[in-house]
């Protein structure tokens, strides 16, 4: 495994900056580089950018063996029991053909056996009304709401030191899909209360997933609620819903009998989401059928943070040890060949921006990633709790 250098983190949680602003019709890269403004867009590298990823053929999925034990008593509010057990984790190269861009499955190879203990999991993604209760009780200020200072960025023009976050902005016409800066922009005043900028708000969206949440924001809420972020292995076991080796959390057919099963992007990406599945943009949680464990929206709608550091070659390194990995918690340090110094955690599930033309990571075995200080208007979280 390549050596992994973890950059020192200051009190603002490792901000390696890349602020992007769209002015009128032109995209201008500001002098201040700010990683939290890089979109958590889970962009797909070319195969050459992922040399650490394995290149293997199809590996059969062995049956899932779920545990039979279940804790006694009533379940925590809004949570369902995930029994845990042994399962085959990852994806196969065959799934690559389901996306218009190459590279979707390379960091999810090879398929390998994993065991996880049972746990409780939120049925839905964390909602705006739940996060608001936390903020009202604690006075917490999210990363996107904090104004960067001249001490952090000496020499930066004062006008560039503004609180905000990244927002998806449709293009006016078809564009090449190899430059995500064409559809992402840094918006002053964008945060969880104003997901698309100051002109947006949460009125009538109490049951929508809270977005514009950076990793430390998710951690802060979890600690307050007495919960934690799931590991990547726990997330995938839960998302599979007891099924073995299926492409999606509900089976192998993306729209069985023509029925939409998840909130994804229809139409020409990134020009217009037609909303053919019932929603253009985010949807209220639980708008689609749950999986076998009673979990909603484990595909599409909003990306979900998990606790593991992201490393492109983690699955291949784990598989080298042979046998069954028990309760894996991810690598000890991050490593993304495309951005070796970036501090990235894994994200799972895809979002309303995922499409078979660009990012089909609503496929249950595929992986996303994001810099820990980055928030965006398609990134949220779902939490878990250990059995007592």
Radius of gyration: 20 Å
Query: What's the β-strand tally?
Result: 15
| Helix/strand order | EEEEEEEHEEHHEHEEEEE
Q: Let me know the CATH homologous superfamily.
A: paralog of FGE (formylglycine-generating enzyme)
Oligomerization category of the chains in this entry: single chain
Architecture, CATH level 2? Alpha-Beta Complex
Give the structure's gist in a few sentences.
The chain is mainly beta. It contains four helices and 15 strands. A hairpin with a 2-residue loop joins strand 1 and strand 2.
Structure description:
Strands 3-5-6-11 form a four-stranded mixed beta sheet. With 388 residues, it is mainly β. It has one domain: Alpha-Beta Complex (paralog of FGE (formylglycine-generating enzyme)). 10% of the residues lie in helices and 18% in strands. The longest helix has 11 residues. The N terminus is likely disordered.
Keywords:
mainly beta, paralog of FGE (formylglycine-generating enzyme), 10% helix, disordered N terminus, 4 helices, 388 residues, 4-stranded mixed sheet, globular
Protein topology:
Layout: E1 18-23, E2 26-33, E3 65-66, E4 79-82, E5 85-89, E6 112-116, E7 119-122, H1 128-138, E8 164-168, E9 184-188, H2 215-225, H3 232-240, E10 303-309, H4 314-320, E11 325-326, E12 344-348, E13 368-371, E14 379-381, E15 384-386
Parallel strand pairs: 6-11, 10-14
Antiparallel strand pairs: 1-2, 3-5, 4-7, 5-6, 7-15, 8-9, 10-12, 12-13
């Amino acid at each position: 495994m390549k050596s992994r250098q973890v950059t020192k983190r200051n009190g603002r949680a490792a901000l390696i900056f890349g602020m992007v602003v769209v002015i009128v019709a032109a995209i201008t890269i500001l002098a201040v580089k700010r990683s939290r403004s890089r979109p958590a867009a889970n962009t797909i590298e070319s195969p050459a950018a992922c040399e650490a990823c394995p290149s293997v053929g199809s590996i059969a999925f062995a049956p899932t063996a779920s545990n039979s034990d279940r804790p006694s008593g009533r379940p925590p509010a809004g949570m369902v029991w995930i029994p845990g057990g042994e399962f085959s984790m990852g994806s196969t190269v065959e799934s690559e053909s389901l996306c218009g861009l190459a590279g979707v499955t390379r960091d999810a190879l090879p398929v390998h056996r994993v065991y996880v203990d049972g746990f409780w999991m939120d049925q839905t993604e964390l909602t705006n009304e739940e996060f608001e209760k936390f903020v009202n009780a604690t006075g917490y200020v999210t990363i996107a709401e904090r104004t960067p200072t001249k001490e952090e960025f000496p020499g930066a023009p004062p006008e560039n030191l503004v609180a905000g976050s990244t927002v998806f902005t449709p293009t006016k016409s078809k564009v090449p899909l190899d430059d995500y800066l064409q559809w992402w922009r840094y918006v002053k005043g964008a945060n969880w209360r104003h997901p698309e900028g100051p002109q947006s708000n949460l009125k009538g969206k109490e049951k929508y997933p809270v977005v514009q949440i950076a990793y430390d924001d998710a951690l802060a809420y979890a600690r307050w609620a007495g919960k934690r972020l799931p590991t990547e292995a726990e997330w995938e076991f839960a998302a599979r819903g007891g099924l073995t080796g299926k492409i999606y959390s509900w089976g192998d057919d993306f729209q069985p009998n023509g029925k939409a099963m998840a909130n994804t992007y229809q139409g020409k990406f990134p020009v217009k989401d037609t909303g053919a599945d019932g929603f253009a943009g985010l949807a209220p949680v639980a708008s689609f059928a749950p999986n076998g464990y009673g979990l909603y929206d484990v595909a599409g709608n909003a990306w979900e943070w998990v606790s593991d550091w992201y490393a492109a070659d983690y699955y291949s390194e784990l598989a080298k040890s042979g046998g069954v990995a028990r309760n894996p918690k991810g690598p000890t340090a991050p490593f993304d060949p495309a951005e070796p110094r970036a501090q990235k955690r894994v994200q799972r599930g895809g979002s309303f921006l995922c499409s078979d033309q660009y990012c089909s990571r609503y496929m249950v075995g595929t992986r996303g990633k994001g810099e820990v200080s980055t928030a965006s208007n398609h990134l949220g979280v779902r939490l878990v709790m250990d059995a007592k």
